[in-house]
């Protein structure tokens, strides 16, 4: 308690921080509204496509995955379990091709397959009309 010149109690002046807090909240609100908007050009974006590319022009060796158990190595059907035997004597580089419309989990399951663990994988994409 502080006594003033006339003997009255004088309280300290307190700064009201509520206005500063409201300003900060409004600035954050505007920031998240602006950052959260999707740009208009994203709706117009189209992925690149390769069309009418013959299978013999694709890089070798190429593993074509159509389904979880439907694999082809250089155009020949191969079981996922027999891939190491089919790749014997070849380089550890393996090109992987999957349909662009295939579900993402098919690609994730294929890439996480233990049989592909030792290979240097390169993803090859092909458009809808150029698919083998």
Automatic annotation (TrEMBL):
Keywords: Cell membrane, Membrane, Protein transport, Transmembrane, Transmembrane helix, Transport. GO terms for molecular function: transmembrane transporter activity. The chain crosses the membrane at residues 18-36. It is found in: Cell membrane. GO terms for cellular component: plasma membrane. The keyword Cell membrane applies. GO terms for biological process: protein transport. InterPro entries: ExbD. It comes from the Bacteria. It is a single-pass membrane protein; Single-pass type II membrane protein. The keyword Cell inner membrane does not apply. Belongs to the ExbD/TolR family. This is Biopolymer transporter ExbD.
